[in-house]
Amino acid sequence: MNWDDDSTDAAAGDEARIVGASAEGDDQAVEAALRPKDLSEFVGQEKVRQQLDLVLKAARQRGATADHVLLSGAPGLGKTTLSMIIAAEMNAPIRITSGPAIQHAGDLAAILSSLQEGEILFLDEIHRMSRPAEEMLYMAMEDFRVDVIVGKGPGATAIPLELPPFTLVGATTRAGLLPPPLRDRFGFTGHMEFYDPAELQRVIHRSAGLLDVEIDPAGAAEIAGRSRGTPRIANRLLRRVRDYAQVRADGVITREIAEAALSVYEVDGRGLDRLDRAVLEALLKLFGGGPVGLSTLAVAVGEERETVEEVAEPFLVREGLLARTPRGRVATPAAWAHLGLVPPQAAGPEGTGSGAGKGQQGLFGA
Ligand SMILES: Nc1ncnc2c1ncn2[C@@H]1O[C@H](COP(=O)(O)OP(=O)(O)OP(=O)(O)O)[C@@H](O)[C@H]1O
């Protein structure tokens, strides 16, 4: 699937959701404690792990700095974690910054000129760097050199500055937005996929061990199934279920406890939260499954257009519950099944739909 087409940037409103993939303020300290420290502890992403293992081992054997690495993938899949593992495996210090923090070429020059030999520079959201900084980065990556411009206008001069060899680890949720000259300068590109439930179960067991929480396999499976393929969400749900287990039960997480806790937080069996379900319900109950325009749908759920489009829809599309078509938003048969409703054409005159489901027929009807 190509999530690059969806807006997976930290969309407004996503941070506050229990199933939001971006990090909340309170997540960051706990996340640090739960981060795998080396490649063997890092769950899943077999391909990227194997390839990276080779790149790093080869560099170590040659006694050289590793090639620049680009990691692409949706928020919360482990890009920051992997960059820290790269530093640990290379026994090198790491400097962490992000595209939005580098708005002027001078900001980047200051960082680059203070790097030590072999240091890892982690540049998160690299697609959000300013153009002048990006151009400076091309030369730095290729020749380990930057031209610092002193003065302005006709009197301006470029002073070349040699840099120690370093490894840039760039992370992006939108690889398609990177200009080709920047993409081409990475020696290795790893694409992070969403995790399958069995992998998330391993993440949850590992985190439960670190948090000193007792959890049985069925409890871990229940949380994994609601974590939207994302370790960050799995860890967050685990912490909320732990609270419930501690306050309302004997502290042990079983399937029943996980189900009860996550229903308190309105996260359903497939990982949809209140907003996702409100969008689906409006689409099915008010518009017979669509097609309906985004603005109309947003008004129906009392949310901004952007919130529906950027916060709720990407996951609904990924789950195959909603389709974006040129004629508007359309529910798929899986959406009707998920909410336990019957599509109008199948329901007959007393069907649950409001009778506005004509478009449904053309797209998904028999
Ligand atoms: N493969 C993994 N195995 C175990 N835990 C993981 C894995 N990937 C991510 N995590 C956990 O998920 C949390 C989020 O990971 P991380 O911060 O690396 O994501 P990210 O892709 O950098 O997100 P963002 O794009 O928002 O910066 C971390 O605390 C880490 O504990």
From TrEMBL:
Homohexamer. Forms an RuvA(8)-RuvB(12)-Holliday junction (HJ) complex. HJ DNA is sandwiched between 2 RuvA tetramers; dsDNA enters through RuvA and exits via RuvB. An RuvB hexamer assembles on each DNA strand where it exits the tetramer. Each RuvB hexamer is contacted by two RuvA subunits (via domain III) on 2 adjacent RuvB subunits; this complex drives branch migration. In the full resolvosome a probable DNA-RuvA(4)-RuvB(12)-RuvC(2) complex forms which resolves the HJ. It catalyses: ATP + H2O = ADP + phosphate + H(+). Belongs to the RuvB family. DNA binds at R305, R324, R329. Its EC number is 3.6.4.-. Its main location: cytoplasm. Residues 269-366 are annotated as: Head domain (RuvB-H). The keyword DNA-binding applies. Residues 350-366 have a biased composition (Gly residues). The RuvA-RuvB-RuvC complex processes Holliday junction (HJ) DNA during genetic recombination and DNA repair, while the RuvA-RuvB complex plays an important role in the rescue of blocked DNA replication forks via replication fork reversal (RFR). RuvA specifically binds to HJ cruciform DNA, conferring on it an open structure. The RuvB hexamer acts as an ATP-dependent pump, pulling dsDNA into and through the RuvAB complex. RuvB forms 2 homohexamers on either side of HJ DNA bound by 1 or 2 RuvA tetramers; 4 subunits per hexamer contact DNA at a time. It is found in: Cytoplasm. InterPro entries: AAA+_ATPase (IPR003593), AAA_lid_4 (IPR041445), DNA_helicase_Holl-junc_RuvB (IPR004605), P-loop_NTPase (IPR027417), RuvB-like_N (IPR008824), RuvB_wg_C (IPR008823), WH-like_DNA-bd_sf (IPR036388), WH_DNA-bd_sf (IPR036390). Has 3 domains, the large (RuvB-L) and small ATPase (RuvB-S) domains and the C-terminal head (RuvB-H) domain. The head domain binds DNA, while the ATPase domains jointly bind ATP, ADP or are empty depending on the state of the subunit in the translocation cycle. During a single DNA translocation step the structure of each domain remains the same, but their relative positions change. Residues 196-266 are annotated as: Small ATPAse domain (RuvB-S). GO terms for cellular component: cytoplasm; Holliday junction resolvase complex. This is Holliday junction branch migration complex subunit RuvB. Mg(2+) binds at T80. ATP binds at L34, R35, G76, K79, T80, T81, E142, D143, F144, R185, Y195, R232. GO terms for molecular function: ATP binding; ATP hydrolysis activity; four-way junction DNA binding; four-way junction helicase activity. GO terms for biological process: DNA recombination; DNA repair. It comes from the Bacteria. Residues 65-198 form the AAA+ ATPase domain. Keywords: ATP-binding, Cytoplasm, DNA damage, DNA recombination, DNA repair, DNA-binding, Helicase, Hydrolase, Nucleotide-binding. Residues 1-25, 343-366 are annotated as: Disordered.
